[in-house]
Write a structure and sequence with these properties.
The chain contains 15 helices and 14 strands. It is an alpha+beta fold. The longest helix is centred in the C-terminal third of the chain and has 53 residues.
Length: about 600
């Protein structure tokens, strides 16, 4: 970094020499392809820029005009740190005469990385002794097992003493390179295999790991999740109460021929008034439940935050991909992942838990009633889950194959659309419109076949629970009616039990639907898992920055501090094996290497693009 700035009135004639690096190409000049000429020309005139008056005030913070101070700034506007290293090193440099002491304060500022979660908030003072041109300080990085993309926090310089701050370099970013896997390190072997089938084989474990990741890592989700589960039980408590209200209505209020029931009425001896109270007890709790539902919809809404978190992190990951990773994720796949897969995974892979909790709560209410009234009638409580688990286990692999085939078919269809747009001129020039349409139509036909297979599969799946319910109600009516006739079972309990069986079937159908939805989330989750764990170029950039720091340190160690030229103005600019992909001259395999010393203009000549 070369400035060509004199640092105060006493050094108006500083010997700092600015560097100009020019790249040019000549039209109309025949030159061999892949050839680069380097021409070194010394500057004819040195340039010195005064930093007095308003120019100083633009850069200074709380510094009186006209004082002779060095410039303090960060050595770079971006620093890198590995999470596994446990710390980030930030370098501050001092440019000028290095005479006397100076100091500057610093503090960390949250970015996508938050203090207390990814790093520890740090503030302090950097002090330069006479002759010191560089100091470093550390910020502690929190090494956890939770996945993050390459996130960052900022460090700000402020409160300078006996120096001035460079306005463009008083704020830097620290990029934290995470070494964990999404959604959990437990699946490192399956993820590195690069095979979606390996992830499908551990599908539900992968899904539960995603749930744990969302619960612990997405802000505000943990507290909201518990509140949602607790509020869901309000509805279940009301549901259990309505079962007892129906039994009470039939066995006591409407049993007008049994005088013994009069004393058991809520208002003894008055059936009509007791019926009014029952109606009020049925209606009034719904006002509370409605308020609870509205609170859930407005305050406890979680879908947006989870979708936003995943979308932002996938987009950030994509921008840090290596070229090889970008080739593995075509733009149509990225669009599908962000706009379709993430909403599906959020809805069927996390939010479904609250519907599941609500249904399980209702099943618990039904179980309580059945065990209290007639324990032997509770057999279906064990029959339903047993048959469902066996059925789903036997058909899981087939379902995964169908979902994967459907996803590939949709991706192929979108691929043809993008291909038709990007290669439209080629298709037109070679008169291939008809052939492209035929191939697109074939892709749609293939997708239709996959869709019908999936529909047939779902048709038989959806019949399982209703048929268990039909059989359960039929057997109960056939064998328990006699107990009512014999007086061993009340009519109210019998009728309530039939409704309970039907409700139980509906509840287990809901459970089955939840598991089916979770299964549907596994395929897109496997795709997202692959994309979140592709290689990025962050490690390469970290190594490049380290090489630059080592290069600068090596040169500075050999620079005499007695030189009248400020130490950082003696640095050359050096390119090593630089390749410019879009330039014929600079697209050579070995790259172009050139060193531009202070006081030199370097002209790079080659054929025009």
């Amino acid at each position: 970094r070369s400035r060509g700035i004199s640092y105060g009135p006493a050094r108006m004639q500083s010997q700092a020499r600015p560097l100009i690096l020019a790249a040019a190409s000549e039209q109309g000049v025949a030159m061999p392809s892949r050839k680069v000429d380097l021409v070194y020309t010394p500057l004819l005139q040195q340039t010195s820029v005064s930093a007095q008056g308003s120019q100083i005030s633009d850069r200074a913070e709380d510094v009186a005009e006209g004082l002779d101070f060095d410039i303090v700034q960060f050595a770079s506007n971006i620093f890198y740190a590995r999470e596994s290293d446990g710390k980030a090193e930030v370098q501050v440099i001092r440019i000028g005469s290095l005479a006397g002491s100076c100091s500057v304060k610093f503090k960390t500022i949250d970015g996508s990385a938050k203090a207390g979660k990814k790093y520890k908030y740090t503030e302090g003072v950097v002090e330069f002794a006479p002759g010191e041109h560089s100091r470093r300080f550390e910020v502690e990085i929190i090494n956890d097992n939770a996945f993050d993309t390459t996130i960052e926090f900022k460090v700000e310089l402020r409160g300078c003493q006996s120096c001035i701050l460079e306005a463009g370099f008083k704020l830097c970013r620290v990029m934290v390179l995470d070494d964990d896997m999404f959604p959990s390190n437990d699946f490192e072997k399956e993820i590195k295999s690069g095979d979606d089938a390996a992830l499908h084989a551990v599908g539900f474990r992968l899904l539960f790991a995603f749930m744990a990741f969302t619960y612990s890592h997405v802000p505000t989700i943990a507290l909201k999740s518990w509140l949602m589960i607790l509020l869901a039980q309000l509805g279940n408590a009301y549901y259990l109460a309505t079962i007892y209200l129906r039994v009470y209505m039939v066995d006591y209020v409407l049993k007008i021929n049994d005088e013994s029931t009069l004393d058991a009425l809520w208002i003894p001896g008055d059936r009509p008034k007791t019926a009014l109270l029952l109606g009020a007890a049925w209606i009034l709790p719904n006002f509370i439940l409605t308020g609870s539902d509205y609170f859930e919809m407005t305050v406890l809404e979680m879908g947006f935050n989870i979708r936003k978190h995943l979308r932002v992190n996938l987009f950030r990951k994509y921008l840090n991909y290596t070229e090889e990773s970008r080739r593995e994720v075509p733009i149509q796949d990225l669009k599908t992942s962000i706009m379709e897969d993430i909403p599906d995974v959020v809805a069927n892979g996390y939010l479904i838990l609250f519907e599941f909790a609500r249904i399980i709560g209702k099943i618990a209410c039904v179980a309580y009633f059945m065990l209290r009234k007639h324990p032997r009638s509770a057999v279906p409580l064990f029959v339903y889950p047993t048959i469902m688990l066996i059925w789903m286990s036997c058909r899981y692999n087939q379902r995964m194959k169908l979902l994967a085939a459907q996803g590939n078919g949709e991706s192929e269809t979108q691929g043809w659309l993008i291909h038709a747009d990007s290669a439209h001129r080629l298709i037109t020039d070679y008169k291939q419109r008809g052939q492209i349409v035929d191939k697109f139509e074939k892709a749609l036909d293939n997708q239709r076949g996959l869709t019908m297979k999936a529909k047939s599969f779902n048709f038989w799946n959806e019949l399982l629970v209703p048929w268990i319910t039909i059989l359960a109600v039929g057997f109960y009516m056939a064998f328990k009616s006699k107990e009512v006739i014999d007086g061993r079972l009340s009519l109210g309990a019998f009728l309530a039990m039939i409704n309970v069986y039907k409700d139980l079937g509906d509840r287990f159908e809901g459970v089955y639907g939840c598991f089916t939805s979770m299964t549907e989330a596994i395929e897109p989750l496997a795709g997202l898992t692959g994309q979140f764990n592709l290689e990025t170029d962050a490690e390469q950039r970290l190594q490049l920055q380290k090489n630059r720091e080592d290069w600068v340190s090596r040169i500075l160690r050999n620079s005499p501090l007695s030189d009248p030229i400020p130490v950082y103005d003696t640095l050359p600019i050096e390119f090593k094996q630089v390749c410019v992909p879009h330039s014929p001259s600079l697209r050579v395999p070995e790259g172009v290497s050139v060193k531009a010393s202070q006081g030199t203009i370097v002209l790079i000549r080659g054929p025009h693009d």
